[in-house]
Structures are given as C-alpha cells and as structure tokens.
Specification:
The protein is of the alpha/beta class and 150 residues long. It has one domain. 43% of the residues lie in helices and 21% in strands. Strands 2-1-3-4-5-6 form a six-stranded mixed sheet. Helix 1 crosses helix 4 and helix 2 runs parallel beside helix 3.
C-alpha cells in the first residue's frame, strides 16, 4: 500500500527531502499551509486526505486542542523521537520504514505513535540499524482519559 506522509513544519526541509530520495511519498507543511498555521487548523485537512503526520513535537500528546483534532479528524501521527540532527533522524526513519509500514498495517486511526532511532549500541554495530515504533495514544486511550476511567 502506498502511503503519503506529511511533515510538520518543525521537521524543516532536509528531513522530507531525505525521505523523498528514499522513494517515500511526502508532502511538506510549507507546500500546503501558512508557516504560522496552528496544528488544530491543518490537522483536519491532513486527516481528510488520509496522510500520516510526521512531527518532532513530543509534547503534542499533552496539548488538548491538538490531541482533540487528531482524534476528531481520524489522523495517524508519528512522533519522531530523538535529539539527533534532522538528517540523522530522517535516515533512521528510512531504516525503520519496513517496521513503520508493518505498524501502520495493524493499527487503526486515529493514533499517536512514537518512532525511535536504534540504540547507540545497535548504531555502533550497524549505522543503518532500524529503530522501533510504539503506539502512544489510541482512540480508546483518548476516550478513557477524557471520561476519567483511565
């Protein structure tokens, strides 16, 4: 299945360029929205297109408006985790891509998940080692948290 990924403005231009070079379909924030567009403004449009959001904003899960927009507009979101330079994070994403695809084949939208780089030990043995993907927030988790039963 061919998926389109949407890079949030916080990932800059080099990150999506590396994904495109690897043959991954990518749409960039700057090509569709104003630079100052709030997340809860563009998330509905991206969700309607079925694009998978890539962001580096690990605080997004704790922003009520953004989480509500993710859930309300059936968005799939992957948070790129790591303090490495964006080109390194992009190469890690490419190395992890088969695992990302497998994850996306099994999880229903809406969701927020984290994409981690390989460990330092794994990278020292193999600079192209894949990372891992972990579900962070599902619709069910969101509903439980909102109802106070979680």
């Amino acid at each position: 299945m061919s998926r389109t990924f949407f890079t949030d403005r916080d990932l800059g231009k080099r990150f999506p360029a590396i994904l495109l070079e690897a043959g991954i379909l990518v749409e960039q924030h700057c090509d569709h929205f104003a630079a100052n567009a709030r997340d809860d403004e563009w998330l509905p449009a991206v969700g309607a297109k079925g694009w998978i959001v890539l962001t580096h904003d690990k605080r997004i899960r704790y922003k009520v408006n953004e989480c509500a927009a993710v859930m309300a507009h059936d968005v799939g979101m992957l948070v790129i985790i790591g303090a490495a330079p964006y080109p390194d994070l992009a190469h890690s994403f490419v190395a992890t891509y088969p695992r990302i695809e497998a994850f996306l084949d099994t999880v229903r939208r809406p969701f927020i998940a984290k994409v981690y780089r390989a460990t330092a030990g794994d990278l020292s043995k193999n600079p192209a080692a894949p990372g891992r993907v972990e579900l962070w927030l599902s619709r069910e988790d969101w509903q439980r948290n909102r109802s106070g039963t979680g």
